[in-house]
Write a structure and sequence with these properties.
Strand order of the largest sheet: 8-7-6-5-4-3-10-9
CATH class: Alpha Beta
Largest sheet: 8 strands, parallel
CATH architecture: Alpha-Beta Barrel
Shape: globular
Number of helices: 9
Oligomer: single chain
Radius of gyration: 17 Å
Distance between the termini: 10 Å
Number of domains: 1
Length: 289
């Protein structure tokens, strides 16, 4: 098992997430348009019930998203996104004061309101490329996950092309790290995500998953989000709600190659799988820190 690039993620305001073991980010979609669970947790009550279940199953982070990023998804207004996510973040913070909350958004206005409501991580599929996003996160002092995406959600799967996918994804992430540092976001607050399924073919995804070791070059922790994605459907023929076992396999493979955080729909099964990984790794006389 590879070594995590950083021992601690600084989430700001005195909040630190130890990365001495792989951490699980549970996905909480509070929008009607997500590819696998759209509408299931659209009401605040249903979302909070789902958050409670994921925390009890062992989630370290709850990732709240009010706008779908599936291929072909349409944009959501700032007002609608805020109405969806803020009550949920406030409810999670009241009920589970010790859990880390992430806001899945690319809008500076939503980032600001979400952190004020209790979020400690911004999870941005555009890697803070929206106008004012870099400055907003620098001011907020929270952690941020920078993801690679070629194109944008509505068109990203229209014939994505790379000359060398690993090198190009790495170069993009390194450039975004540099941009963060220049505006005053410390490296200790950064996570990197190769963006499996975001502007990538099946072959691109498989190449990245097989070469995660190369993405450790910036010296920062990696987040892997491959849960239930279409590449699993392409490989297995299973619909989105029948991709549990393959999703756990990808999470396990990712952690074995040094992923510090895995973003998943199915927390309980992933927790069990990673506990087995940790036990085997310990028996080998090595450490995941």
């Amino acid at each position: 098992m590879s070594t995590n690039a950083a021992a601690v993620l600084d989430c700001g305001a005195g909040c630190f997430l130890s990365l001495d073991r792989p951490r699980i980010m549970g996905i909480l979609n509070v929008n009607p348009d997500s590819f696998t669970d759209g509408g299931d947790f659209f009401s605040t009550a249903a979302a909070l019930e789902r958050a409670s279940a994921m925390v009890s199953e062992g989630a370290d982070i709850i990732d709240v998203g009010g706008e779908s990023s599936r291929p072909g998804a349409e944009p959501v207004s700032i007002a609608d996104e805020l109405a969806r996510v803020i009550p949920v973040i406030e409810g999670i913070r009241r009920t589970f004061p010790g859990v880390i909350i992430s806001i899945d958004t690319c809008k500076p206005e939503v980032m600001r309101a979400a952190v004020a409501a209790g979020a400690q991580i911004v999870n941005d599929i555009t890697a803070l490329r929206a106008e004012g996003a870099l400055e907003t996160v620098a001011e907020l002092g929270c952690a941020v996950c920078l993801m690679h995406m070629q194109g944008e959600p509505r068109t990203m799967q229209h014939a994505p092309h790379y000359d060398e996918v690993v090198a190009e994804v790495l170069a993009f992430l390194e450039a975004r790290v540099d941009a963060c540092v220049k505006v005053g976001i410390p490296r200790q607050r950064l996570l990197l995500d190769p963006g499996i399924g975001f502007g990538k073919s099946l072959e691109h995804n498989l190449t990245l998953l097989g070469r995660l070791d190369a993405l450790h070059a910036p010296g920062l922790p990696l987040l892997l989000g491959a849960s239930r994605k279409s590449m699993i459907g392409a490989l297995t023929g299973r619909p989105a709600d029948e991709r549990l076992y393959a999703s756990i396999a990808l999470a396990t493979l990712g952690v074995w190659q040094g992923a510090a955080v895995v973003r998943v729909h199915d927390v309980r099964g992933t927790v069990d799988a990673l506990r087995v990984c940790a036990a085997v790794n310990k028996a080998r006389g090595t450490s995941n820190t």
